[in-house]
Design goal:
By secondary structure, the chain is mainly alpha-helical. It has two domains: about 10-70, Winged helix-like DNA-binding domain superfamily/Winged helix DNA-binding domain (Arc Repressor Mutant, subunit A, Orthogonal Bundle), CATH 1.10.10; about 90-240, Up-down Bundle (Four Helix Bundle (Hemerythrin (Met), subunit A)). It contains ten helices and two strands, in the order H-H-H-E-E-H-H-H-H-H-H-H. Strand 1 (about 60-65) and strand 2 (about 70) form a beta hairpin. The longest helix is centred in the C-terminal third of the chain and has 27 residues, at about 210-240. The two termini are about 15 Å apart.
């Protein structure tokens, strides 16, 4: 029987926002409550509210007006197709497809970051790497620090579309915690995170040294290895070898 995974926090707030729109009978052009009010109402941080709104904007359900606020948009016509980003990381096939898609975006982002990065960009990447190592022994699996590292690389491209991609995907960019990844013991968890940390540092070194080709290679290897890790982890879970 398939395992039921808890709904992701950002996805829950998306649902709450849609219920708010429906419950208050908000029409296209009506303004949403301010972000602080939404945080109080839903009991979440501004980051979660921002990511939920960004995801609904990507789906064409909301729009922002600079200096004015967020407004309800005309719902997109049903096409019968797939959403650009998965609603929640429940199926390993969706995870693997998304990792493949990330390769097409983030490999080039790493190359551009190596060409365009500033010292401030490098500082933010280094801070994310330091935070990553601080979470080797807790239950978060360093997902937030992992996403912060990839976000800093997107920033370093000086192309806002790469940053928009990371922000709209939100915490689903690093789905291992939400997917329920587990390990036999703390030693296994630490070894798993140490491998990822080493891959991150190879990407960082190439960007720092302004070597775009090496940065692209390092990012591709990192994401391809991540895709393999998710596949292997699920295979082990299916035969009862993890957890």
């Amino acid at each position: 029987m398939p395992v039921a995974h808890p709904i992701h926090l950002t996805d829950r707030v998306k649902l709450d926002l849609m219920r708010l729109i429906e419950g208050d009978a908000l029409k296209p052009g009506d303004k949403l409550p301010a972000a602080d009010e939404l945080c109080r109402q839903f009991g979440v941080s501004r980051t979660v509210v921002r990511e939920a709104i960004a995801s609904l904007k990507a789906e064409g359900r909301l729009r922002s007006l600079r200096g004015s606020g967020v407004y309800v948009e005309t719902p997109p016509a049903a096409t019968g197709g797939l959403a650009m980003f998965m609603a929640a990381p429940e199926e390993i096939g969706d995870i693997l497809d998304f990792m493949e898609f990330r390769i097409s975006v983030e490999v080039e982002a790493a190359g551009l970051a190596a060409e365009r990065r500033t010292e401030v960009n490098l500082l933010r990447m280094a801070q994310a790497l330091a935070q990553f190592r601080l979470h080797f022994s807790d239950k978060t699996l360093a997902t937030d620090a992992d996403r912060a590292f990839h976000r800093a690389i997107a920033d370093a491209t000086s192309n806002k579309r790469f940053r928009l991609f990371v922000d709209e995907v939100g915490e689903r960019l690093i789905p291992r915690r939400a997917l329920g990844a587990t390990f036999a013991d703390q030693k296994s968890t630490t070894e798993f995170l140490e491998v990822i940390d080493a891959e991150h540092r190879r990407i960082f070194d190439a960007i720092s040294d302004r070597k775009p080709d090496e940065a692209r290679i390092a990012m591709r290897r990192h994401l391809e290895d991540g895709r393999r890790r998710y596949r292997d982890w699920r295979l082990r879970q299916d035969v009862g070898l993890v957890g």
